[in-house]
Amino acid sequence: MGEEPERIRAEIEQTRAEMSETVDAIGYKADVKTRAKENLQEKKQSAKESIVGVKDRIVGAGDSVTGTVSDRTPDPEQVKHKARQAKSVAQQNPLGLAIGSVAVGFLAGMLIPSTKVEDQKIGPIADDVKDKVRETGQEALEHGKQVAQDAADTAKESGQQHAQEVKESAQQSAQELQDQQSSGSTSAPTYQTR
């Protein structure tokens, strides 16, 4: 009979400890703001570490190449030009900017961990959405690659065509100059411009 109350007390203490852990875990799960801050801090730290690593690699590579850093950095006018160019693109394509913003927001939402209740209620739907987004993203990436490749091919063809035209014009001018010199003409040469 002396052992029975001791066993019950031990079970009560064990149950209290387990409940305390459970309450703490539920409190942590319910504190989305703190979890989001922690997650953001982890992401910031990871990004900082990545940037430092990239910076170290760039500095290391820069030290091995002759020249000064100022030669490699864009001047303020170039930076302003690129900023104006980006602003112009955003103004010309507000729909693209909106879609990009929605995508960034969606990705940010995906980074925040979900709770058990969310997993139970919308887990299967979320999995389907994630799969569709992944497929759509892959298709968009492939389409973007194809568009970039087409643009590069077009630019290459245009450059080759222009080079050929310049070459032909130069050859024609050289031939006309030779013809004039061989005919003994002293008049000033005329050049054809396009």
Account of the protein in words:
This protein is mainly alpha-helical and 194 residues long. It contains six helices and no strands. The longest helix has 68 residues, at 116-183. The protein is elongated, with a radius of gyration of 34 Å. The termini are far apart. 0% of the residues are buried.
SSE diagram, text form:
Layout: H1 3-30, H2 32-64, H3 69-72, H4 76-92, H5 94-111, H6 116-183
Q: What is the number of helices?
A: 6
Backbone shape: elongated
Oligomer: single chain
- CA-to-CA gap between the ends? 113 Å
Q: Give the low-confidence spans.
A: none
**Count of β-strands:** 0
Largest beta-sheet details: none
Alpha-beta classification = mainly alpha
The share of residues in extended strands comes to under 5%
The level of helicity is over 70%
Helix-strand pattern, N to C? HHHHHH
User: How much is the radius of gyration in Å?
Assistant: 34 Å
Mean pLDDT: 75
Describe the structure concisely for a colleague.
With 194 residues, this protein is an all-alpha fold. 87% of the residues lie in helices and 0% in strands.
